[in-house]
Amino acid sequence: MPGRTLVLCLSAVLAGCAVGPNYKRPDLPVPPTFRSGEPNPSKRSIGNEKWFDLFQDPVLRDLIREGLINNYDILIAAQRVVEGEGRLAATRAALFPHLDGETSASRIGIHSPTQSVGEVFAIATWELDLFGKFRRATQAARADLMALQENQETIIQALIAQLASAYFDLLEYDLELRIVGESIKTRRESVRLVAARVEGGVASMLDLDQANSLVESAQSDAVVLERAQTQTENLIAYLVGRSPGPIVRGKTLVEQSTPVEIPAGLPSDLLERRPDIRAAEQRLIAANARVGVAKAAFFPAINLTAAGGLQTNDLLGIAQRSGKAYSLLGIVDTPIFDAGLRSGNYKTAKGQREELLVSYQSTIQGAFRDVSDALIGYQKAKDLSATRQALTSTLRDQSRLAAQRYSGGVSSYLEVLDTERQRLTAEQLLVQAERDVLKSLVQLYQALGGGWH
Fold first, then answer.
1. Alpha helices, DSSP H only, in 42-132?
2. Strand pairing of 98-108 and 323-333?
3. What's the domain count of the chain?
4. Whole domain around residue 237: which residue ranges?
5. Which of 82, 101, 364, 412 has the most other CB atoms within 10 Å of its CB?
6. CA nearest 69: which of 157, 156, 153?
7. Which of 151, 140, 152 lies closest to 285, judged by CA?
8. How far is CA 311 from CA 92, 107, 175, 304, 318, in A?
9. What is the tens place of the pLDDT at every residue in 176-211?
10. The pTM is what?
């Protein structure tokens, strides 16, 4: 009889259906090309490149490897994945029967002789998942876990972009400091030259004051750069899990390489490549499954309980003088009136699903914008670098000619002062433009979904 009952229960479960909507990826408008991208894109994309292939500086590679092991945000994300695995296991357990043991002993005596009673029972309980409540809950927990895994990959991607950008900032400060340091040396030589001309009566004290102001201006620039340099080192140390301290350099800023071609790929592939989009979709899948959980609550729940064991009136002799006992119980829990509890939960679940649908759509459109912005940013960064290269070359010539004209007594030191300031500013802006080319490449790489591999 118990065997036939179990077979009937299993048949009922297998025949049962999960109520609620099955997930289907929503139809979303996907542009055929990225704005500012290739007119005829192919599936090739720089976002498919591994980070250790894109970044050729060995020191930067080592920093990224260290960060992937020790970064605090990544460690936190990893533990959240472990939590999600635990929640999935706990949720899925409701699909299966539960077996518990129960032992009791008692002595009873009121108006009759004292009687001892002992029981040892095994109790199996099982709520049949006829309408898919537990299956939908398991789907939701599994999607939540996958969203946490995608979030972990998003954090990995962001860390690599942060480290690369900070490293290029550091190299830019190094190069700026070298340029400013050379300028300070040159300007001090100019101060000595002007001082000699003042002593010879050829120049005025105004010229000497102007020459000293150039030195002091460059020294102020050096102080600002040294502060930024140290703070950036501290940032990199934090990102890789170290205490604040100096950071080893590899290649210089001008030695960093960039790919000859920067293919963006197909916009439709972005939906599968970017972990933040995949995470948003998994959250939508979880919310869709929870609509089924809320809907299943409107239907009856069938709980089966089976117990079997030994029972005796002799506590000391339960093993020898006991009788077998068993019980079977089935309970049908039918909702009748709950003052709107189930309806409210169902409405809440549907609202959360619609909210996450809009969030998913927003994430996708935001990703298309990120790529378009990054593409134009990289193109214009290269154009700006070329423009500043030409301007710097012109101002170098002007500064040299102005110094020659002043030495020959043709012009005042004010002309030297003006051209030298312009030259140093142009040199610094050129270095910043070269750094921005590298950082815009990192931004494009991240926008296209690269870096989490």
1. 51-54, 58-70, 72-92
2. unpaired
3. 1
4. 19-101+131-301+348-447
5. 364
6. 156
7. 140
8. 34, 14, 87, 22, 7
9. 999 999 999 988 988 888 898 888 887 888 888 888
10. 0.86
